[in-house]
């Protein structure tokens, strides 16, 4: 059974593990070194955790944390890849590989959306590579494309239903279970008055990037 709760103050070290898991590995046989977490633009996601604007929820199975979603705001410091402005918190989420594709991520997001709404936020940002299967999840939750680019270049797309080719490798027959049912998080994302923004993500400026904004 999966349960959800806030991250305890004594569990901050878990954030480093889940930040690394949030990096989409293009080649799992040749994973990115954990040393990339020392880069300022990645370290900023978890460094000096515990500020007033920092919020983290975790998913737990049998007393073991198997997933986490967190957000923070940036002002006058190194910002994350999905930074929009200093009034919009940026989200990060990841799960242990064996728990992906079960709808747990959408549940975590839905619960964080509720928390942000309670805190008075109307927007949040989130970064994702086009080749990451999670890209499809965000699309199903009502995001539309805002920008698409390579490396550090980006540009705007006006059409909500753009015709960008599928580069995720997740075809209709391989959708996660959240694509076959109206999950709690999906319903919340579509009915609540919370506007969400997905901004670009880049590791070593090599990958194709995408940005979304909600309808």
Report on the architecture of this protein:
The protein is of the alpha+beta class and 215 residues long. It has a single domain (2-214), classed as Gcn5-related N-acetyltransferase (GNAT) (Aminopeptidase, 3-Layer(aba) Sandwich), CATH 3.40.630.30. Helices cover 20% and strands 23% of the residues. It is built from 5 helices and 9 strands. It has helices at 14-21, 40-43, 104-118, 134-140, 184-191; strands at residues 2-6, 55-61, 64-72, 90-95, 125-127, 143-150, 155-156, 197-199, 208-214. It has a 9-stranded mixed β-sheet, sandwiched between helices. α3 (104-118) packs parallel to α5 (184-191). It is globular. Residues 150-196 and 199-210 have low confidence and may be disordered.
Percent of sequence in beta strands: 15-25%
Q: What structural class do you assign from the helix and strand content?
A: alpha+beta
Stretches with pLDDT under 50, minimum 5 residues = 150-196, 199-210
CATH class equals Alpha Beta
Widest sheet: strand ordering: 1-2-3-4-5-8-9-6-7
Determine the N-to-C terminus distance. 33 Å
Could you tell me the mean pLDDT? Answer: 71
What is the strand tally?
9
Labels describing this entry:
9 strands, globular, alpha+beta, 5 helices, 215 residues, Aminopeptidase
Draw up the topology in text.
Layout: E1 2-6, H1 14-21, H2 40-43, E2 55-61, E3 64-72, E4 90-95, H3 104-118, E5 125-127, H4 134-140, E6 143-150, E7 155-156, H5 184-191, E8 197-199, E9 208-214
Parallel strand pairs: 4-5, 5-8
Antiparallel strand pairs: 1-2, 2-3, 3-4, 6-7, 6-9, 8-9
């Amino acid at each position: 059974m999966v349960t959800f709760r806030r991250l305890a103050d004594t569990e901050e070290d878990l954030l480093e593990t889940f930040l690394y898991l949030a990096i989409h590995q293009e080649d799992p046989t040749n994973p990115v070194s954990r040393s990339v977490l020392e880069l300022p633009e990645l370290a900023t996601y978890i460094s000096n955790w515990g500020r007033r604007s920092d919020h983290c929820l975790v998913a737990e199975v049998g007393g073991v944390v198997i997933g986490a979603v967190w957000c923070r705001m940036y002002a006058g410091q190194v910002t994350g890849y999905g930074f929009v402005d200093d009034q919009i918190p940026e989200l990060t989420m990841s799960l242990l590989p064996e728990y992906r594709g079960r709808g747990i991520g959408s549940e975590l997001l839905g619960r964080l959306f509720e928390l942000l709404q309670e805190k008075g936020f109307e927007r949040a940002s989130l970064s994702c590579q086009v080749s990451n299967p999670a890209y499809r999840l965000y699309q199903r939750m009502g995001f539309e494309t805002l920008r698409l680019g390579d490396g550090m270049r980006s540009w705007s797309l006006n059409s909500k239903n753009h015709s960008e080719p599928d580069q995720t490798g997740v075809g209709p027959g391989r959708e996660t279970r959240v694509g076959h049912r109206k999950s709690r998080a999906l319903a919340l994302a579509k009915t609540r008055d919370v506007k969400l923004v997905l901004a670009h993500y880049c590791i070593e400026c090599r990958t194709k990037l995408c940005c979304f904004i909600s309808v």
